[in-house]
UniProtKB/TrEMBL annotation:
Pfam families xref list: HemX
UniProt keyword list: Membrane, Methyltransferase, Transferase, Transmembrane, Transmembrane helix
Domain of life of the native organism: Bacteria
Record keyword rRNA processing present: no
Molecular-function GO terms, alphabetical: methyltransferase activity
Source organism of the structure: Paracidovorax wautersii
Transmembrane regions listed in the UniProt entry: 31-51
Protein name (Swiss-Prot/TrEMBL): Uroporphyrin-3 C-methyltransferase
Record carries keyword Transferase: yes
Length: 365
């Protein structure tokens, strides 16, 4: 390559001019590059700022999400507490309703009590006296003693006198009549009556039956014959007789007595009593004891009608199946009659006049 100018070409001066022109292009490029660098730097700074803002937004969103989760947990906890509170409130409401019902019932009872207490003094006195007299009457019927009834009547009389109410005068007069009637009444000897019944129960086993009379007479004859054989012969029966004749005479007398005992004519008014078997006799005595025990229980329970019927049944059985000629049977029949007579007078007098007067006074309020 030669530095010499080529013919036909322009001179080398234009090359210097282009070199001088290239210098300004390089400065503008630098400026553009600088501008581009500034723009890139500004974009980078903006990107950094945008990234920082996005990061802060993400942190804020994460924080809000965490807060939202915490609030959701707290909301569920508060909802559960609200449900528990609602259940407690419902239970308390039920308890309050129950207590309200109890208070209402107590208030109603209190109102009824106030109404009952608001009655007049005379009405309360009449009711109290009537209940006391009925209680004393029941006690007297159970114990057979008139003292509780007399004491209740006297106490009622004193209370009526202290009240000084003219309309209770008929009650006081009725109480005086009942006191007079009780004063004339005879006191029942329950212990003596029970003692008689116990004696009858103990005597049942020793009472002879009606069908045992023939057997008893035969036993008496055998005992008499045995005593005659054991005793020496009397001179009147064996006087002037040989020994063998005396023995034959004694044997004949024994045979004669036995033959007489084989046939016995007796009037039988009660065939069932005469044909009673030994085992039936045992049950007959036991039934008689049970009848007397029932009468004893009736006296203790103040069931006098039942006791009278039991004693009447015992008397019928005693007269039908037992020997009326025996002293033991007669004594038992006498004791039984005394017990029946005692029961006829054992009825306690009542206080019907006083109770009727109290009912009239209570109805007149």
């Amino acid at each position: 390559m030669s530095s010499e100018p080529t013919p036909g070409l322009p001179p080398a001066a234009p090359a210097a001019t282009s070199a001088r022109a290239a210098a300004p292009l390089s400065a503008s490029a630098r400026l553009g590059i600088t501008v581009l660098g500034c723009i890139a730097l500004a974009a980078l700074v903006a990107s950094l700022l945008l990234w920082q803002r996005l990061w802060s937004v993400q942190e804020q969103l994460a924080r809000q999400s965490a807060d939202s989760g915490t609030q959701a947990i707290e909301a569920r906890s508060m909802a559960r507490q609200a449900q528990d509170l609602a259940r407690d409130t419902a239970a308390k409401q039920a308890v309050a309703d129950a207590r309200l019902n109890e208070v209402t019932l107590q208030r109603r009872q209190l109102e009824e009590l106030i109404q009952s207490l608001s009655r007049s003094r005379d009405e309360n006195l009449v009711v109290d006296i009537e209940s006391g007299l009925r209680l004393a009457q029941q006690q007297a019927q159970l114990t057979g003693n008139l003292e509780p009834l007399v004491a209740a009547l006297r106490s009622a009389q004193q209370r009526i006198e202290r009240s000084a109410q003219p309309r209770l005068a008929p009650v006081q007069q009725a109480i005086e009549r009942d006191l007079d009637r009780l004063g004339r009444a005879s006191v029942t000897d329950t212990a003596g009556l029970l003692g008689r019944i116990d004696d009858l129960i103990r005597q049942v086993d020793d009472l002879p039956l009606l069908n045992a009379v023939a057997h008893a007479s035969a036993m008496r004859r055998m005992a008499a014959a045995q005593g005659a054989d054991d005793a020496p012969a009397t001179p009147a029966s064996t006087a002037g007789m040989p020994r063998w004749q005396a023995v034959l005479t004694s044997a004949w007398e024994v045979v004669r007595d036995e033959m007489r005992g084989l046939l016995r004519i007796t009037r039988i008014d009660r065939p069932d009593a005469m044909l009673l078997a030994p085992e039936q006799a045992f049950f007959l005595r036991e039934n008689l004891k049970l009848t007397l025990l029932n009468a004893r229980l009736g006296v203790l329970a103040r069931q006098l009608d039942s006791a009278r019927s039991d004693l009447a049944a015992a008397s019928t059985s005693l007269n039908r199946y037992f020997d009326p000629a025996s002293r033991r049977t007669q004594a038992a029949a006498t004791t039984l009659q005394q017990a029946q007579a005692h029961l006829k007078t054992a009825q306690l007098p009542g206080i019907d006049d006083s109770l009727a007067a109290l009912a009239t006074a209570a109805a007149g309020r």
